[in-house]
Structures are given as structure tokens and as C-alpha cells.
Amino acid sequence: xxxxxxxxxxxxxxxxxxxxxxxxxxxxxxxxxxxxxxxxxxxxxxxxxxxxxxxxxxxxxxxxxxxxxxxxxxxxxxxxxxxxxxxxxxxxxxxxxxxxxxxxxxxxxxxxxxxxxxxxxxxxxxxxxxxxx
Length: 133
Known about the structure:
The structure is a single chain. The chain has one domain: DksA, coiled-coil domain (Four Helix Bundle (Hemerythrin (Met), subunit A)). Helix content is 71%, strand content 0%. The chain starts with a helix and ends with a helix. The model has no long low-confidence stretch (mean pLDDT 84).
């Protein structure tokens, strides 16, 4: 179980990261709205560089959107008083783990199981892609 001071630290950490992501999202929207779409006087290298930069900014925005969802879920679990419980097995998540990674929703054992399962799926997908089944 987390102490009141640890709960406060988690809430402050999550809230600060949420604020940062909101700011970055606003900057991303401004960037996409201000994108120079004029093609006059630009060569193919300029175009390629601009498009690569724009695509990277969009991927960054998508990553932030996913991270924001995890932060919102963690804040909800914090508000409900269950942030310390694993969503899979309902065992306690170590305090050190939560303080280092406040968006975590899995205990270390469930996280390892999830990663092993994903590795198996990725291996199966790779084998299927090469026609070796």
C-alpha cells in the first residue's frame, strides 16, 4: 500500500507529465497548421526533408496521444485508490515500480508475461511473413 506522500508524488508526477503533453500537442497542432505548403522555389531535397520532418512530428503526436491515454488511466486508478493493484492479477505493484513508472498498470510478473507473449506473436508473424509455417 502506498503512503499519502507517495500518492501525492504520483499525482504530481502524472499531472506534470499530462501538462507537458498538452503543451506539446498544442505545439504540434500549430506546426501542422503553419506548415509551408508552397512548392515554388523548392527542390526535391527540400521537399523530402520537409516531409520527413512533418511525418516525424505526426508520429510524435500519435505517441503523445497514446501516452496521454495511459496517464488518464493512471489518474483514474489513483482517484479510485487502486493504482497500486495490477489490472491483470490484482496483486500489489511494487512501490518502487510505481514511483519510477507511474503509468504502469501491471506488476512485474504480468508485464513479463505480456512481453513474452508479444515476442511469441512477433516471431509467429515473422515466420508467417516468410511463408514458413
